[in-house]
């Protein structure tokens, strides 16, 4: 019966969400549960569920990973990272803002996932450089105080060696107890072994890593808000809206940018301040001026980074090719359908919507396997040097080691779950339950729907959330006789606010995979960003967005007061 299907689907959703929250199983294993449970409950046949696991998104991911592999193989990300740090300075506050704004800018034109996948290796390199530089400074200062010999550093190495063995055995070192190194002062002992992990010399270093990770995940999401093509949820919304209300010509690239850009800018700045304060404590004095020791340390950091950059040597042919392909990919993505001018998709006008961002990504991705990186030569018996083969920019083996299969399955699981909700009628049931909302004041309805969407998007994938929510909210708007945009715009923006969990959003999953963060870090920090986001969107929908779309009046393009009830 119908009710039974809905209940079964809700149960599946509940189990998968619980497992994702608790990480009782690896995330990608949990993501396979819908393909087991939906057929067993008779909600969808296995063939249909399986087809949800590989979508356009995956092709995009493959193309982008080809680029990422080449960037990392030829060390381009290190060059960009060091160049950027040299420009911004080593102060973590400014560095973070530099990273956030550049990530957000990239994310406007590229997909959020590919932006995060691209910038994260750079940030990782930078964080490591800063930590190493600080360590070197401390070491030299120690030498300076202790006379010629430096016991500090020798002890340091033995501790590190010991800890690496510990990590292989998957056990945490016991604080204050370490056989190899009895002679360490207790402070170093604690710092090293209180479960800090092996990579961080200080708590501050660890916090810097966490801060870097999160600021990239969050800013790539925030940047995606600003353009219709910036993220898949905006595209799904625009597609749905224009299909449902064909007479409204009000939604295009320009109008979307005008109302979402100020909102995104405010959210970006506020979350920068919040993350700074949350991880490092926001000391305004320290951010804007520095004391004597600070100057010594920063000078030394800058020096180390400069040396690292010089070690890279002059830019090589392979790096140039990679950079050119990266720029071409970005330009093709941007010019496909910019909105204010016809893009190259107009050349294929008889097949509208056939070529997507993933087409571009695959086209460029394939070139990495075609373009020769170097000649393989051999010397013939007569003494000539002959080129017998060319090696490409990347090989399949290298690509495979980079491809995040876990993320691919994770996102697939989200899509499968969404299809299950549609098929079983769970989304319709939720819609019916919402129709009594009409008696509430409009701002409260918007707030409730925004909060509901934000909560839902934390456990479901963003496209799944918006797909489930749109068919519920637009009939709701018509039923209570308000401009559909008034409810749909905030909800669409809130779909992107998946800041709490690694599974909520591919960028979160990407930065999480670097292993600096625990789930609880992301939950605590993300909660602040979430609240900021919803508050700013509410502010916008009550102020500068109103005149743009004339939100207070019920528009002529929406269906007149219909007698039919909610679906």
TrEMBL record:
<dbReference type="Pfam" id="PF00939">
    <property type="entry name" value="Na_sulph_symp"/>
</dbReference>
<comment type="similarity">
    <text>Belongs to the SLC13A/DASS transporter (TC 2.A.47) family. NADC subfamily.</text>
</comment>
<feature type="transmembrane region" description="Helical">
    <location>
        <begin position="354"/>
        <end position="371"/>
    </location>
</feature>
<feature type="transmembrane region" description="Helical">
    <location>
        <begin position="57"/>
        <end position="76"/>
    </location>
</feature>
<dbReference type="GO" id="GO:0015382">
    <property type="term" value="F:sodium:sulfate symporter activity"/>
</dbReference>
<protein>
    <submittedName>
        <fullName>Solute carrier family 13 member 1</fullName>
    </submittedName>
</protein>
<keyword id="KW-0739">Sodium transport</keyword>
<feature type="transmembrane region" description="Helical">
    <location>
        <begin position="525"/>
        <end position="546"/>
    </location>
</feature>
<keyword id="KW-0915">Sodium</keyword>
<dbReference type="GO" id="GO:0005886">
    <property type="term" value="C:plasma membrane"/>
</dbReference>
<feature type="transmembrane region" description="Helical">
    <location>
        <begin position="253"/>
        <end position="275"/>
    </location>
</feature>
<feature type="transmembrane region" description="Helical">
    <location>
        <begin position="485"/>
        <end position="504"/>
    </location>
</feature>
<feature type="transmembrane region" description="Helical">
    <location>
        <begin position="315"/>
        <end position="334"/>
    </location>
</feature>
<keyword id="KW-0769">Symport</keyword>
<keyword id="KW-0812">Transmembrane</keyword>
<dbReference type="InterPro" id="IPR031312">
    <property type="entry name" value="Na/sul_symport_CS"/>
</dbReference>
<feature type="transmembrane region" description="Helical">
    <location>
        <begin position="12"/>
        <end position="37"/>
    </location>
</feature>
<feature type="transmembrane region" description="Helical">
    <location>
        <begin position="434"/>
        <end position="453"/>
    </location>
</feature>
<keyword id="KW-0813">Transport</keyword>
<keyword id="KW-0472">Membrane</keyword>
<keyword id="KW-0406">Ion transport</keyword>
<dbReference type="InterPro" id="IPR001898">
    <property type="entry name" value="SLC13A/DASS"/>
</dbReference>
<keyword id="KW-1133">Transmembrane helix</keyword>
């Amino acid at each position: 019966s119908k009710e039974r299907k809905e209940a079964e689907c809700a149960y599946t959703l509940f189990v998968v969400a619980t497992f994702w929250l608790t990480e009782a199983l690896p995330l990608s294993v949990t993501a396979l549960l819908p393909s087991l449970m939906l057929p067993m409950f008779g909600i969808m046949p296995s063939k249909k569920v399986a087809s949800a696991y590989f979508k356009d998104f995956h092709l995009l991911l493959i193309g982008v990973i080809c680029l990422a592999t080449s960037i990392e193989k030829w060390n381009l990300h290190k060059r960009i990272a060091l160049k950027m740090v040299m420009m911004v300075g080593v102060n973590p506050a400014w560095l973070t803002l530099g990273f956030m704004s550049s990530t957000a800018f990239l994310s406007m034109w590229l997909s959020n996932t590919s932006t995060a996948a691209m910038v994260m290796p750079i940030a990782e390199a930078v964080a490591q450089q800063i930590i190493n530089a600080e360590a070197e400074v401390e070491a030299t200062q120690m030498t300076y105080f202790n006379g010629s010999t430096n016991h500090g550093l020798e002890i340091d190495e033995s501790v590190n060696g010991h800890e690496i063995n510990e990590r292989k055995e998957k056990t945490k070192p016991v604080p204050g107890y370490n056989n190899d190194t009895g002679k360490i002062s207790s402070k170093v002992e604690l710092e090293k072994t209180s479960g800090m992990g092996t990579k961080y010399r200080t708590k501050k270093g660890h916090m810097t890593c966490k801060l870097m990770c999160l600021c990239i995940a969050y800013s790539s999401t925030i940047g995606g808000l600003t353009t219709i093509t910036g993220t898949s949820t905006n595209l799904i919304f625009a597609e749905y809206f224009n299909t449902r209300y064909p007479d409204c010509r009000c939604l295009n690239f320009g109008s979307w940018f005008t109302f979402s850009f100020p909102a995104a800018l405010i959210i970006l700045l506020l979350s920068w301040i919040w993350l700074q304060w949350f991880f490092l404590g926001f000391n305004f004095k320290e951010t804007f001026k520095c004391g004597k020791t600070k100057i010594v340390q920063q000078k030394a950091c800058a020096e180390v980074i400069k040396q690292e950059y010089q070690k890279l040597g002059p830019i090589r042919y392979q790096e140039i090719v990679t950079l050119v392909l990266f720029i071409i990919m970005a330009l093709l993505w941007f010019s496909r359908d910019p909105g204010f001018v016809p893009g190259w998709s107009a050349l294929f006008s008889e097949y509208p919507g056939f070529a997507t961002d993933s087409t571009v990504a695959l086209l460029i991705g394939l070139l990495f396997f075609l373009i020769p990186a170097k000649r393989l030569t051999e010397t013939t018996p007569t003494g000539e040097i002959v080129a017998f083969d060319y090696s490409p920019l990347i090989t399949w083996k290298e690509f495979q080691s980079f491809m995040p299969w876990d993320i691919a399955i994770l996102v697939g699981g989200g899509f499968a779950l969404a299809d299950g909700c549609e098929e079983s009628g769970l989304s319709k049931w939720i819609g019916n339950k919402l129709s009594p909302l009409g008696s509430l004041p409009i701002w409260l309805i918007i707030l409730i729907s925004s909060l509901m969407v934000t909560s839902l998007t934390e456990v479901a994938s963003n496209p799944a959330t918006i797909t489930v929510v749109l068919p519920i909210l637009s009939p709701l708007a018509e039923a209570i006789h308000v401009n559909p945009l008034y409810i749909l715009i905030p909800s669409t923006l809130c779909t992107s606010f998946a800041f709490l969990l690694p599974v909520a959003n591919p960028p979160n999953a990407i930065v999480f995979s670097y292993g600096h963060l625990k789930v609880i870090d992301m939950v605590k920090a993300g909660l602040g960003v979430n609240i900021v986001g919803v508050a700013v969107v509410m502010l916008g929908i009550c102020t500068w967005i109103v005149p743009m779309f004339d939100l207070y009046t019920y528009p002529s393009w929406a269906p007149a007061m219909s007698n039919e009830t909610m679906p």
